[in-house]
Amino acid sequence: MGQGEEVNTRSPPEVEIQERGEIYFFYRPKVNKEEAHSSDDVQRMYIVLRPESGETSTQIKQKEEEEEEEEDDPPPTQGGYGSQVVNIEKNSLLRFIVMGQKKLPDPTKKSRPLWGFVELVTTKIEDVKDALKGGEYDTAKSGHRHKAAARPVGEGIYRILRHHSGKKMHTHLIYKLEFPSEEEKNEPQEALNIEKEASFLIQIKNPTQKGQFRGLNKKKRAVFPAHLQGQFGKLRYHAADPPDFLNYEGCEFLLISASDDIEEELGLELKSEVEETQDASCSDLLNTFGETSSTNALLKGIWHSDDIKVPMAMFGGSVNYASALYIAAATAKTLEKFEAELLDLVAAS
């Protein structure tokens, strides 16, 4: 349903909007688990940022690999595979982000900063779909392994902004959820610290300096173009100004809890376009990426449902061993539930 809108409630405003867009949250169950029942069963947590407007209509991003072959391309020292300009008001730009601790900082209290990094930057929706997929693979030590598809757990609108506090300026990532709705439970959201709304300070790590976090190895760190790298100087961290820093794979950052009440902290109110409808058909996340896995966390605010959906493989086609076990368990539980309902019906007659 789009990027929503913001309303300044203080005069003069203390913030400057750098970027507006949509934010999606996902988690992936641990290897060989088809469902997560608590945060202990979570292998990875992902954030997808989809900028749609900002101070400028264009942003600089790392050029995608297949475009590297042209002779006029700049060398990798100019930012990964070189740079390209994207009009975010006309074209999709997607940042696929991994949170190292598999959760967000708790915005309701002061807590340790949490580290994350940008794993993928792309203009192709299919690339993100592929990153969210499950799969089967083999390892020398553990044998066959099953990786479940990532589950959507939150959808909303976000802003990256400058906040002028006294003589200091810093940048915030703020968001407000649209799904799940206020009326639904929020079990996985509470476990992963995904509040209904939140504000975090965001700081970009200098890839040439050591930080207090171990972070990515040198080969996987971002290579920023000179105009971005030069802003660090000798500093270990820099504000996310401009947000273009996040358009380079391997960009590392810290999120620092600020508040779970954006209006009280910053004098800014975020307004969603789906506050009144709350219909699943309005979900941009589902309309964009499809229902490739369970949507219980996104739409109902629960980890899983007792109503097991039996895979289509049950009705034909090839099935691997892991899927066969899943089907057997699903069938047994479905029959058990049917038998219990039948006994209740007989007893009542």
TrEMBL record:
Residues 34-43 have a biased composition (Basic and acidic residues). Residues 34-84 are annotated as: Disordered. Residues 65-74 have a biased composition (Acidic residues). It comes from the Eukaryota. This is Uncharacterized protein.
